[in-house]
Design brief:
Blueprint: E1 4-7, E2 10-12, E3 15-17, E4 22-23, E5 26-27, E6 32-34, E7 37-39, E8 45-47, H1 55-63, E9 73-75, H2 81-84, H3 87-93, E10 98-101, H4 103-113, E11 119-121, E12 127-129, E13 134-139, E14 149-153, E15 158-162, H5 181-196, H6 200-210, E16 217-220, H7 230-241, E17 246-254, H8 260-274, E18 278-283, H9 289-296, E19 299-305, H10 315-327, E20 333-340, H11 346-355, E21 363-364, E22 368-371, H12 376-397
Parallel strand pairs: 8-9, 9-10, 10-11, 15-16, 17-18, 17-19, 19-20, 20-21, 20-22
Antiparallel strand pairs: 1-2, 2-7, 3-6, 4-5, 7-8, 12-13, 13-14, 14-15
Helix pairs in contact: 5-7, 5-9, 6-7, 8-12
Bound molecules: MU-OXO-diiron.
Length: 398
């Protein structure tokens, strides 16, 4: 196992989780990495750690550069176990080594590992000197845990951003100049959608706080390291944090029992196309909710359809809507639709879950429902009504 040199004296020494496909419900089709960084200075410093089962891999990479027992300083930017799982074994090797982190992280690490390591509490703005370099800490609470923080090295203009700007990508390539940029940005967007989105207000604060920093490299704790494309990922984070969406993009998300709701979904697709917008169809039987969330980060219209089943909505649709509510996208326009047999309860339930301020809180279009099987004449009638409503929206946007 080799370390990867990033700058003179600065190395990536993380672990690669090639086979990871599910990160607590988020489909990680490209695997992931847990990035740890070794700085060789007067005080040898390790920033962050890896999942427990990749500890030996991290130690092998560190050993490629130095004897791991020579590490003088540990910095822990986050408690979550994908970045701290290797700590209990490392602390056995380095029992008295100072572990710099913030108060929330000290509390969290003690609660996780029941150990009273040699913690040194740091506050936002504190700086330590490790020789030729300084390291400054910037707490980033709730991006996405209370304990998250960034570490910044002014001499190198490197930001060690932990989960911020990360992506679940397992790769042999480390830098954004070595891997297809469109994939890195797409995976960063998926990561934001599924992990960071509920904390967008806090991301806004962090972006403001970090705006004065000169940054030539962002070293996240997952995936590819940002070098040449730092401005691109920072600009993307600004858009995502401020809920910027594409006013012409719509998602038509549905499940269906006897294909009537699917017919309505296709009709809605046609209505959006006919007014010059760009709809995408997502059948919840075929598309994972974490992939749909990636699209939701930039789509303005969120249309959700379910037939009525047992006086309610289909379980796939319910699961999606509860996931959506938890991730809290804002400033979106919703549409509830579906076919029904007799009760028709799915429509008010969808309308409530999408539109109620205590739920998703979207502005809502008129709901569309149809009893039993819509024929072409009925579909055309519904489509023309929706097209008229969409045209009005487009006019009002001008
Ligand atoms: Fe990658 Fe919040 O852990």
């Amino acid at each position: 196992m080799k370390a990867r040199k990033l700058r003179e004296g600065i190395y990536w020494v993380g672990g690669i989780d090639w086979n990871l496909r599910n990160f607590h419900g988020y489909m990680t089709q490209r695997g992931s990495t847990y990035n740890a960084y070794l700085i060789i200075d007067e005080k040898i410093t390790l920033i962050d750690n890896v999942k427990s089962y990749l500890y030996d891999e991290m130690i092998a990479r560190i050993s490629d550069i130095i004897d791991p027992s020579k590490i003088d300083i540990l910095i822990q930017n986050h408690v979550e176990m994908d970045h701290s799982g290797g700590l209990p074994r490392l602390m056995k090797l380095l029992p008295n080594t100072k572990l710099y982190t913030n108060a929330q992280a000290i509390k969290g690490l003690k609660a996780h590992y029941k150990e009273d390591w040699n913690f040194v509490e740091v506050k936002s703005g504190d700086t330590i000197n490790i020789g030729k370099r300084d390291l400054t800490f910037l707490t980033t609470p709730m991006v996405h845990w209370p304990d998250n923080m960034f570490t910044y090295c002014p001499q190198e203009t490197i930001l060690f951003s932990n989960d911020g700007f990360g992506q679940h990508i397992a790769s042999s390539e480390r830098l954004d100049t070595e891997f297809p940029l469109n994939i890195i940005l797409e995976e960063a967007k998926k990561y934001y959608a599924n992990i960071v989105l509920p904390y967008s207000k806090q991301v806004q604060n962090v972006l403001n706080a970090a705006s004065g920093l000169e940054i030539s490299m962002i070293c996240p704790s997952h995936g590819i390291i940002w070098t040449e494309h730092v401005p691109k990922i920072v600009a993307a984070y600004k858009d995502w944090a401020y809920y910027v969406s594409d006013s012409k993009t719509a998602l038509v998300i549905y499940d269906t029992m006897w294909k009537s709701t699917e017919k309505m979904a296709m009709m809605i697709m046609e209505a959006f196309e006919n007014v010059g917008m760009h709809p995408r169809l997502c059948n919840l039987q075929e598309t994972h909710i974490s992939d749909i969330m990636t699209e939701i980060v930039s789509a303005r219209y969120i249309c959700v359809g379910s037939p009525t089943l047992n006086s309610s909505i289909l379980p796939t649709v319910a699961a999606f809507l509860y996931y959506l509510k938890g991730l809290s996208p804002k400033d979106r326009i919703g549409l509830a639709f579906g076919s029904y047999g007799w009760g028709g309860q799915s429509i008010p339930i969808l309308q409530n879950l999408l539109g109620d301020p205590k739920e998703c809180g979207f502005e809502m279009l008129e709901p569309i429902k149809y009893q039993y099987i819509p024929d072409q004449a009925a579909l055309d009638e519904m489509r023309l009504k929706l097209e008229a409503e969409l045209k009005t929206k487009l006019e009002n946007q001008k």
